[in-house]
């Protein structure tokens, strides 16, 4: 069945810093996820705290927000068939050590914090996250 969705993808500071942006973008486009919008930005810690507020009760919240605001990131709207799930499959498990072969986090992730990419986990969150970065 035809189910074209949009999802938000972030290339995190560790991957932007290592010039992996084009390689990661190629993984998306080679797997039928079109990049509808893309911009390189550097957010503040307050903005990162707002973006990740679903994690505010977690012990890693402060470090997570400090990390996402530590350097430039690339935020993208990906569009394609079942884009939310398709993107999550391409990313692999949150912890690169547990990610499957050939996934982005297995290929490029350094640690659970520096795991190279973020992707929305549901269509509902995808809408909110796209709004956060692109509809201001
Ligand atoms: P991300 O998909 O961006 O969503 C939240 C992030 O928190 C996650 O990727 C990880 O980089 C980071 N994180 C740090 N520690 C943990 C943890 N113990 N469990 C889950 N996510 C973690």
| Unreliable sequence segments | none
The structural class is alpha+beta
Bound molecules: adenosine-3',5'-cyclic-monophosphate
How do the helices and strands follow one another from N- to C-terminus? EHHEHHEHHEH
Q: What is the number of helical segments per DSSP (H or I, 4+ residues)?
A: 7
CATH architecture classification: 2-Layer Sandwich
CATH superfamily: Nucleoside diphosphate kinase-like domain
Structure description:
This protein has a single domain (4-42, 72-133), classed as Nucleoside diphosphate kinase-like domain (Alpha-Beta Plaits), CATH 3.30.70. It is 41% helix and 21% strand. The protein has seven helices and four strands; from the N terminus they run E-H-H-E-H-H-E-H-H-E-H. The protein has a four-stranded antiparallel beta sheet, sandwiched between helices. The radius of gyration is 14 Å and the shape is globular. Adenosine-3',5'-cyclic-monophosphate is lined by residues 55, 60, 64, 94, 112-113, 115, 118. Residues 55, 60, 64, 94, 112-113, 115, 118 line the site of adenosine-3',5'-cyclic-monophosphate.
Write a compact overview of the structure shown.
The protein is of the alpha+beta class and 136 residues long.
Task: Give the SSE layout.
Blueprint (H helix, E strand, L loop, with lengths): L3 E8 L1 H5 L3 H10 L3 E8 L3 H7 L9 H8 L4 E9 L1 H9 L12 H5 L8 E3 L3 H12 L2
Antiparallel strand pairs: 1-3, 1-4, 2-3
The protein binds adenosine-3',5'-cyclic-monophosphate.
The site of adenosine-3',5'-cyclic-monophosphate has 8 residues, from loops.
